[in-house]
């Protein structure tokens, strides 16, 4: 039997005061992806099926390279935020912190690898 008040039992379990900021960040990245993904598909579709030299020449132009780079960055940051929210909602304890760190590292590593490949292709 516990003699704690309802307030004492609920203390520390309430709002983290960051939900609205996270919601708007996810909404902004969603709108960004809504614009970037069709542009990426359009630009990538033009290069699809070409020889290596044609693809390198195509991605040497600024517009396709910038669209691809922005899509990589915004897409992986959006993934990181969504995965972190899912982990925070459904896991507890040490596994929660390890999973959040792992998702963050994987996301930023994927961004770095994608941008490195794009720079190698464009230059």
TrEMBL record:
- Chief subcellular location: membrane
Per the record, the pathway is: Carbohydrate metabolism; tricarboxylic acid cycle
Pfam family name, one: Sdh_cyt
Region forming the signal peptide: none
> What GO biological process terms does the UniProt entry carry, in alphabetical order?
tricarboxylic acid cycle
Q: Which GO terms describe its cellular component?
A: membrane
Cofactor dependence is on: heme
Q: Which residues cross the membrane?
A: 31-52, 58-77, 98-122
Record-linked CDD domains: SQR_TypeC_SdhD_like
InterPro entries referenced in this protein's UniProt entry, alphabetically = SQR/QFR_C/D, Succ_DH_anchor, SuccDH_FuR_B_TM-su
Q: Which GO terms describe its molecular function?
A: heme binding; metal ion binding
Q: How does it sit in the membrane?
A: Multi-pass membrane protein
| SUPFAM superfamilies, alphabetized | Fumarate reductase respiratory complex transmembrane subunits
Domain of life from the UniProt record: Bacteria
Compartment(s): Membrane
User: Which keywords belong to this entry?
Assistant: Electron transport, Heme, Iron, Membrane, Metal-binding, Transmembrane, Transmembrane helix, Transport, Tricarboxylic acid cycle
Listed NCBIfam families:
succ_dehyd_anc
Q: What does this protein do?
A: Membrane-anchoring subunit of succinate dehydrogenase (SDH).
* Quaternary structure annotation from Swiss-Prot or TrEMBL: Part of an enzyme complex containing four subunits: a flavoprotein, an iron-sulfur protein, plus two membrane-anchoring proteins, SdhC and SdhD.
In Swiss-Prot or TrEMBL terms, this protein is called Succinate dehydrogenase hydrophobic membrane anchor subunit
What's the source species for this entry?
A: Palleronia pontilimi
- UniProt lists the gene as sdhD
